[in-house]
Amino acid sequence: MVGYVEFADRIPPAKYKRARYVSQRAPSFSRPAPCPSISGISFGGVADPEAAAQTPRDTEAPDGIDVSGNESKRRKVHSFFHHERTEALDPSLLEPTSPLEQANNIFYAQDIGKQYQLAVKDFNIEVRDNRIRAKDKEISELSGKLEWKELQLSTALTRIDDLRLDVTVRGVELQLSKYKNDGLKEKKSTLERDLESANATIMNNDVSLRAMHRDLELSKVEIQHYKNQRLIGYLLRCMRNLLGMPDVIQDTSNIFPLMKLPGELRNRVYKLALVLHHPIDFWPMPSGLAAETSRRDTVEQDLKQISGNLLRVSRQVHKETVPILYGCNRFRFSHLGSWTVLHGFLAHINTNCQYLSSISIKIPDTWTRVIGDEPLQLPERLLNDADLHAVLRRFGYNSIQTPAGPSIKSHRAFSRGCEMLVSLPSLRSFTIVIPHNEEIYKPAAQYIANILTAEDRALVLDGQPASTPKRMFVFLRRPADSPQVVATRNLDDDVAMGRRKLMSAIQGAEIKSGCYRTMEGRVSYAVDGGEDEYDYDVPEYYIEQQGPEGFVLFRPLRAAAKRLLGC
Q1: pLDDT tens-place string over residues 457-504
Q2: Is residue 474 within 8 Å of residue 429, measured between CB atoms?
Q3: What is the rounded (10 degree) CA torsion for 468, 470, 471, 476?
Q4: Helix or strand run (H / E) with residue 300
Q5: 228: Cβ–Cβ under 8 A, 6 or more apart, which residues?
Q6: Secondary structure of 368-401 as H, E, C letters
Q7: Three-state SS annotation for 114-128
């Protein structure tokens, strides 16, 4: 049983079940003779206390030597049975164990089991402690990592706060810059309005000065004429006295007493002499003109139908006829460059603008484009237009390149024309004509729709037009003999041509359509449904006191005196 004891002492805790199995089968190998006891337990005989006392508990035989000192074949320590044994077994092992030995073996096995359980518990405790230490180490490492992550997070949060602060500062700076820009823009707009107001004042003063200068020239001519008349009368009286010729009494039987008629009849006479049934178009469309007829000839023919000499009869007649001439006639400006001609016309008639009641004009050239034409060629074409120079010369402008004269640049002509239109006090009808082949720039639709309204750009701050005329927009239809598609553009497409955008922007105005006409009817176009005619409200007239009947001078002497004085 020495080998059994050695094996039991060397058994690891993991092989406890195998050791228990060996301990139960150990009695079959016990010897009948008493054997040395180990730890006070005898195998194969009665327990011997003395032998137990004499034998040390920790006695172990070295490998290859029995307890009795006999050398034996080296045993394997990892197995209880030795499969290569050749010697015979001890006969004592064949004897059955006694109950005492069995009890001792049971106690010994229980002791070994308890020791093993304690060892297992100690081992489990140690393993648990090692795991706890490993967990503590892992927790410490994770704590370090957590602290590092928290440090990184705090750094990132600090960076985010800095970035937010930077963004806030930049936003405040941008807001301040925006406020500054808004302030600068407001100051700029204020300065522009002041400049426009100053320009308008300068223009009004210039118009007033020109009118005063013209009146002064007329007064000088009239004074010189009166001086010449007095000199002629004095010379004739002297000659009649010298020759002894009697004075000839003027024959007034053939003179029509116009100024003795009532004012209503005189107005009727004035209208028959000065008002045309069709509009006076100072700048007609060339499409309706004959090949041999120019726009200058057309304007001349219209003006010949007006008895303009009636205005030169007397001051009283001039005062009565001017409101009818400008207030009852309808004036049109229908072609490219119409705002240049309008500016020249309004500047020419000067203060008589206050009587104008009806004006029709083409849509501003600066906000449209003729399909198939180059818009940048318009100023050059107007500069070389002989008809334009002829019409403006009739208005008293020998050159269109003067600063105070009408401009051939469309935006400047439109700006000056609008400034004069908003100041007309008697305007009752204002019409804008849109030809079929002109594309309207969509961003400018609202500006066109606001002409002669409270939102007109030509008005000063919080200003209002001097009159509230009936506004009308006339869209001319494409003639049947003209092409529908020009330069890949469909002229009948209202959306592509910008007409739909303008129609949606128009408020408080009438929208009509029209067609082109030939100049045989004295008009470039006709509005569907016709146009209204306006009659100017002429105040009651007063009849000037007529002086005594004058005398008819001796005609030969009067002619000779005029030739002598050069008048």
Answers
A1: 877 767 788 899 999 999 999 998 889 998 888 999 999 999 999 999
A2: no
A3: -160
A4: helix 295-304
A5: 565, 567
A6: EEECCCCHHHHHHHHHCCHHHHHHHHHCCCCCCC
A7: HHHHHHHHHHHHHHH
